[in-house]
Amino acid sequence: TKEPVVLGIESSCDETGVGIVRGTQLLANAVSSSMDEHVRFGGVIPEIAARAHLEAFVPTLQQALDTAELTLDDIDAIAVTSGPGLAGALMVGVSAAKALALATGKPLYGINHLVAHVGVGVLEGTVLPPTFGALLVSGGHTEILKVTSLTNDVHLLGSTIDDAAGEAYDKVARLLGLGYPGGPAIDKAAKDGDRKAFRFPRGLSLPKFVGSAENPGKHRNNFSFSGLKTAVARCVEHFEAAGEPIPVADIAASFQEAVVDVITAKAVRAMKENNLTTVLLGGGVAANTRLRELLAARCASAGIALVVPPFSLCTDNGGMVAGLGAQLVADGVEPSGLDFATDSSQP
Ligand code: KG4
Ligand code: ZN
């Protein structure tokens, strides 16, 4: 049988992404980011993101088609992120996708952004077992997932109860005067610091939250980063009040260690307790040097295979949406039609 050619559209945050796949083969993955326009505000401004998608969509689509050396006639189906994400930003991508579907008569699939992040694992020849785990860490999400079927069975094992991990990086970077986005800045500053200089809290790690394997606590697999952020703020204030220079590198390294320690420990434990032998890492924080290092070490000692897709597929992109769309087509799933809404808080 002929493998479906699927066009995927992503616009849930600041990246306008258009990807094209043939089955599990990635043909193009064009991305335009409006991050430069958000930097001076220290965070993504929804209105600016939505307007940037409107400007970037057609050029990004054209770039993807050119790269794949295809025209819209060659596309078998269109997939688009319908949520979760910024409402106005999502609406631009979904409107564009509906217009394309209407004009070309191709079937359209509305796609869950988080499932697309996980579905990326099958692209480019990565072999995943039928059931696998995933750890998603970005500016918008921090989740541990169990994937039994990408098309109809993705189970949430745990998630953050407050800030996402990337959000914590961004907020702490601001406290330390390191600029935005904070993840790469802290990652870099931490390289010159001592990660044992300060012992910052590992959120939801106390026995009352964690419980035991037989009698798990409510937050066994959940994360919290707001207490950590407050602890860093107190630490900075302490040095300020004493009139001493702030040990930025040591604080960055110690903060990073607290985040990465709790994420990797909880993820690996969740894999073991759910008999998952493979874990896929995704999201923008997957770029973090220390996260990759510690996760690789802990997976290795637990006998768990770690799959880390290329970074261009870890951050938001259209290729992951196209990849999941191709699996829906292959599995014979009914298209979504042209009247579905966006859902900014889609579970
Ligand atoms: O996946 P992504 O591009 O967008 C979404 O949030 O969906 O992730 C962006 C997040 C930002 O919070 C950024 O600070 C963080 O990923 N990030 C990092 C690193 N590179 C990006 N966090 C830690 N270390 C990094 N090297
Ligand atoms: Zn994302």
Automatic annotation (TrEMBL):
Q: Name one GO biological process term.
A: tRNA threonylcarbamoyladenosine modification
Q: What molecular function terms (GO) are annotated for this protein?
A: iron ion binding; tRNA N(6)-L-threonylcarbamoyladenine synthase activity
Which CDD domains does the entry link to? ASKHA_NBD_TsaD_bac (cd24133)
Q: Which UniProt keywords apply?
A: Acyltransferase, Cytoplasm, Iron, Metal-binding, Transferase, tRNA processing
What does the entry's cofactor note say about binding and number? Binds 1 Fe(2+) ion per subunit.
- Cofactor(s) required, per the database record: Fe(2+)
Its EC number(s):
2.3.1.234
Gene3D superfamilies hit by this protein = 3.30.420.40
- Coarse class of the primary localization is cytoplasm
Q: Which domain of life is it from?
A: Bacteria
Give the UniProt family note.
Belongs to the KAE1 / TsaD family.
Please name the PANTHER family in this protein's record: TRNA N6-ADENOSINE THREONYLCARBAMOYLTRANSFERASE, TRNA N6-ADENOSINE THREONYLCARBAMOYLTRANSFERASE, MITOCHONDRIAL
Return the HAMAP family for the record. Answer: TsaD (MF_01445)
Q: Tell me what this protein is called.
A: tRNA N6-adenosine threonylcarbamoyltransferase
Q: Point out the gene that encodes the protein.
A: tsaD
